[in-house]
Design a protein that fits this description.
Distance between the termini: 96 Å
CATH topology of the largest domain: Purple Acid Phosphatase, chain A, domain 2
Order of helices and strands: EHEHEEEEHHEEEHEEEEEEEEHEHHH
Strand order of the largest sheet: 4-3-2-1-13-14
Radius of gyration: 28 Å
Shape: elongated
CATH architecture of the largest domain: 4-Layer Sandwich
Structural class: alpha/beta
């Protein structure tokens, strides 16, 4: 006999233009739980993006009420205190605001919600020293809880919302500080068959049988390259763990990088915009799209916002992000040092990378004449 869990990471349910995507992913997980005949579902925290609204709580409660198996969850750092506790009134639900050990079939579950700094502050631990003390206290508490289990021979699974030292964020940077951190060694000392983690949105394995599930859907453009997933964790009676990861069908997020490519004649227009990758509008239907272009301040008018919006009208959302280089303004030192207007025009061309055409010189002479005759 074995015990099979469905694993769901950070949900971040919120009322915005992507609510339908989150709800759709949860419905996919619900169907998977039925099809795979799991024994229980584990939610690893951050059910909400922030303190929940009655509408958001109702949406999630409806889903929980439809799930046919026991549900276990922990509070994440984005979940307001007591926002999840009300779900304990739904039969078969166990949501932890404080650490607890519960029995889930043939497996013991150690439920570890987000460690709260306020408790440390109330005991005189603040700042960096407080976080270090908190990490040591967290490790000692978890070891103590595991040691008091009534049946130490039963397989143990840890479900926790934690920042683990050395975890990699979606920006590909290690997470350091800003939270009470658990260490990999302290987690391994618990002797668990599996440790299931929430908080970090990038799916990753920290060590054998220690995994961050990752967020349920893409949360922002920093996660656009990540495949989102849910997991099936199987624990046999000997305590051996088997993991299976299933991709979640969710909205695609993508960035188009655009820049101007000068024509051989030096002319520039919308026709000289190069995009990587290149998409037509129908290729991005239903996506969240970010159109990011780079240029100097003098050339940003060449990017036609109306044309960009028209081409990508099929996208679910479109965010146009100019990245304007203001370092090459006409106030460059070479321009200021030039004496005559024609020398200043030439210096401006060098500073901005513009090939000075005869038409430019003609316009300059026209302006000089208008000024002198004014």
């Amino acid at each position: 006999m074995s015990t099979r869990f469905l694993l769901i990471g950070d949900v971040h349910l919120r009322t915005d233009e992507n609510t339908d995507d989150t709800v759709g992913a949860l419905e996919f997980a619900e169907k998977l739980a039925v099809d795979r005949r799991v024994d229980a579902i584990l939610f690893a925290g951050d059910i909400y993006e922030k303190a929940s609204t009655p509408h958001e709580r109702a949406m999630f409660a409806v889903l929980l009420d439809l799930l046919p198996v026991p549900i276990y969850g922990v509070r994440g750092n984005h979940d307001a205190h007591e926002d999840l506790d009300l779900f304990n009134h739904i039969p078969g639900n166990t949501w932890a605001e404080i650490p607890a050990i519960v029995e889930a079939g043939r497996v013991d579950l150690l439920l570890v919600p987000w460690p709260d700094r306020s408790y440390l502050a109330s005991n005189g631990h603040t700042g960096e020293a407080g976080d270090r003390a908190g990490s040591a206290a967290l490790a000692a508490m978890l070891r103590g809880m595991v040691a008091t289990r009534q049946s130490p021979d039963r397989p143990l699974v840890v479900l926790a919302h934690l920042q683990v030292l050395g975890a990699i964020s979606s920006s590909a940077q290690p997470l350091i500080g800003k939270a009470i951190e658990a260490t990999l060694g302290d987690l391994q000392d618990l002797g668990a068959a599996a440790i299931v983690l929430g908080h970090v949105h990038k799916p990753q394995q920290l060590a054998p049988n220690i995994e961050y599930i990752g967020s349920l859907t893409v949360h922002d453009f920093g996660e656009e390259a990540e495949e989102k997933r849910v997991g099936i964790l199987t624990i046999d009676d000997e305590g051996a763990a088997t993991w299976e990861w299933i991709p979640v069908p969710c909205r695609h997020w993508h960035t188009v990088e655009a820049r101007l490519v000068p024509h051989a004649t030096g002319s520039l227009s919308w026709e000289h915009v190069e995009e990587t990758p290149h998409f037509e509008g129908e290729d991005v239907e239903g996506w969240n799209l970010r159109y990011r272009f780079s240029c100097t301040e003098e050339r940003q008018h060449l990017f036609d916002h109306a044309e960009i919006t028209r081409r990508f009208a099929a996208a679910h959302t479109l965010k146009i992000v100019p990245q304007v280089d203001r370092a090459e303004r006409v106030r460059a030192a070479e321009v200021a040092a030039a004496r005559s207007p024609e020398e200043k025009l030439a210096a401006w061309g060098v500073a901005t990378g513009t090939i000075i055409q005869e038409s430019h010189r003609g316009k300059l002479h026209q302006l000089e004449s208008e000024v002198s005759n004014a």
